Amino acid sequence: MNKTWWKESVIYQIYPRSFNDSNGDGVGDINGITEKIPYLSELGVDVIWLSPVYQSPNDDNGYDISDYRNIMDEFGTMQDFDNMLAEAHRHGIKIMMDLVVNHSSDEHAWFQESRKSKDNPYRDYYIWKKPENGEPPTNWGAAFGGSVWEYDEETGEYYLHLFSKKQPDLNWENPVLRNEVYEMMRFWLDKGIDGFRMDVINFISKDTSYPQGEVREGHKYGHGSKYYMNGPKIHDFLQEMNKEALSSYDTITVGEMPGVTVEEGKLYTGTDRKELNMVFHFEHVGLGDGQFGKWDPREWKLTQLKEIFTKWQKGLEKDGWNSLYWSNHDQPRAISRWGNDSDKYRVLSGKMIATCLHMMQGTPYIYQGEEIGMTNVKFDDINDYRDIETLNAYRDLTPDSLTHEEIFKGIHERGRDNARTPVQWDSSANAGFTTGTPWINVNPNYETINAQAVLKDEESIFYYYKKLIELRKQNEVVVYGTYDAVMEEDEQIFAYTRTLGDDQLLVICNFSDQNPVFTLPESVRYSSKELLISNLEVDENDSIDELTLQPYEARVYRLTK
Question: Cα separation of 320 and 339, whole Å?
Fold first, then answer.
């Protein structure tokens, strides 16, 4: 058993713009994070994943970086960053930064030079192509709408951007560019940070023949992802990155990898591969996608969700490692997506989904506000939204593909700004996030859902998360035990066991507002049991051979054979 600190950690993601504003300008900042580190220490987390704080024109809220070695003016100074890093370390909390190197901003000095002429030394830092019969080189569609190719008048060529046209893709075929990236990574590691979450890192290797993509029904552009997801040189690049930038430090690394499979996950995270510690896959968050992806969501089944988790749990059980998450800055709020955000069941279902996730094998991620039970927001006006993906989808899909009502249903259920409304600290104006005008409106439910309220309530979701984190630290079986699914065909109950030697846990989670019956399978045998945690007051002597569950009930037992 290969024991490491990052396997035993719980990670908390901070989206700085929406976390805590210390100076009243309506934008969260680094000093605001520093103020709240004692709060995170009380929760018990081990690592902060910090979404980008680098200099950026904010076309994509910091994921378009114009200077990798400086701090965004709105967020503060490098001295502020150093103070935050020191304060986090003083509380025993590590810092994992966001590494965004599939693309930069078009305002980065490299790109400004690159577009000047075809023989500029920086030209090959990006991917430039000649027009094909006056058209873009391929028919690929960009993630935020439109073509992936943007024509540049200065040199009469197109540059590639898989996301916004202000996010030109870096050319990883160029070894000089790669060395620039590794040097920048060492700059931050030498400063004392503890690792990197790597943004769409499995996109950095492209099929350099650039074939045309399949055009799907109802879509204008071709689907080019198979030519840039998990590309031909991706493992070479990551192994080189590990050798040149990571191997001399005790780091934590996680790669965001849309389209990654379990088999590829093993290659990325295998112990002897020397690439990454873990990956983010997106199979579960894509459940219910319609013809236009998340913008016209459909019903999904619990059996589908269980199948995905079980596949990854078993697939990376012996070699590799899982990232465990319900939500992040690109996903809707966990309770609204996977639980029930009604007044009646919000807290109960929030505790249930937390139980389900935190008891699995892998490193759990908590997204800011999840621990206080924050929910999706339902703005009525498209002008209240700030997310480039949401705004472009509304522009591109209405009214020809989806009606206003249809796409707003998708935005309310799945849009990225659900996760980006400010953290609700208290019931004062703007939820205590800022004394100014927030950059995006606060969810109106902040008067009842806020950190101040949960900290006063011993039965709150905050203290339930704290207990889950404590159980993880006290029980090796939670970290290192094997996972085995129970009642796999049930559409209401998600149950599984975790086993490490003679130590076994039984996890039972009801994902419905009904009263299904849990039946212990014959394969699970015990002589005695101990209730470790439950989100309801229950009788510890209840028989688990056949157990009628309350709506959104969760229980975890230790079984003795």
Answer: 29
Above pLDDT 90, what percent of the chain?
A: 96
Strand 195-198 vs strand 94-99: parallel, antiparallel, or unpaired? parallel
Does residue 116 sit in helix, strand or coil?
Answer: coil
- Expressed in angstroms, the distance from the first to the final Cα of the chain is 23
- Average confidence (pLDDT) over 21-32: 98
Catalytic residue among 21, 169, 256, 296: 256
Burial of 390 (0-12, 13-18, 19+ CB in 10 A): buried
Q: How many CA atoms lie within 13 A of 136 on its CB side?
A: 22
The count of other CB atoms within 10 Å of the CB of residue 403 is 12
Above 80 in pLDDT, residue 1?
Answer: no
Which among 59, 199, 283, 296 is annotated as catalytic?
199
pLDDT score, position 561: 86
Mean pLDDT on 399-406: 93
What are the structure tokens assigned to 550, written together? 């309350």
For residues 121 and 72, is the Cβ–Cβ distance under 8 A? no
User: DSSP readout, 384-412?
Assistant: G---HHHHHHHHHHTTTTS-HHHHHHHHH
Q: What does the DSSP 8-state code read for residue 182?
A: H
* Chain-centroid distance, C-alpha 276: 16
The CA distance from 161 to 150, in Å, is: 7
Residue that has been written with the tokens 């935020």 in this structure: 144
Q: pTM, whole model, 2 decimals?
A: 0.95
DSSP, residue by residue, 328-349: -TTS--HHHHHS--STTTHHHH
How many Cβ atoms are within 10 Å of 150's Cβ, its own excluded?
Answer: 18
Does residue 510 contact residue 551 with C-beta atoms inside 8 Å? yes
- CB atoms under 10 Å from CB of 148, counted, come to 27
- Cβ(454)–Cβ(289) under 8 Å? no
Task: Give the rounded distance of the alpha carbon of 494 from its chain centre.
Answer: 22
- Residue 217: pLDDT band by 50, 70, 90 thresholds? confident
**Token pair recorded at residue 126:** 């990006």
Known catalytic residue at 256: yes
State the residue for tokens 């409304």.
Answer: 421
Residue percentage of the chain with pLDDT more than 70:
100
Q: pLDDT band at 519, cuts 50/70/90?
A: very high
Q: What is the pLDDT of residue 367?
A: 98
How many degrees, rounded to 5, is the angle at CA 83 between CA 81 and CA 87?
Answer: 115
DSSP, residue by residue, 313-329: HHHTSSSS-BEE-S--T
User: What's the half-sphere exposure (Cβ side, CA atoms, 13 Å) at 277?
Assistant: 24
What pLDDT, on the 0 to 100 scale, is given for residue 218? Answer: 80
Instruction: Kindly write down the DSSP assignment for every residue of 413-459, as one continuous string.
Output: HH-GGGGTSPP--SSSGGGGS-SS--SSPPPGGGGTS-HHHHHT-TT
Examine the residue annotation and report whether 153 is marked as an active-site residue of this protein.
no
Contact status, residue 488 vs residue 495, Cβ threshold 8 Å: no
Predicted confidence (pLDDT) at residue 219 exceeds the cutoff of 90 = no
**What average pLDDT does this structure show over 491-516?**
97
Query: Each residue of 142-191: pLDDT tens digit?
Result: 998 899 999 999 999 999 999 999 999 999 999 999 999 999 999 999 99
Q: How far apart are CA 526 and CA 540, in angstroms?
A: 15
Kind of pairing between the strands at 546-548 and 493-500: unpaired
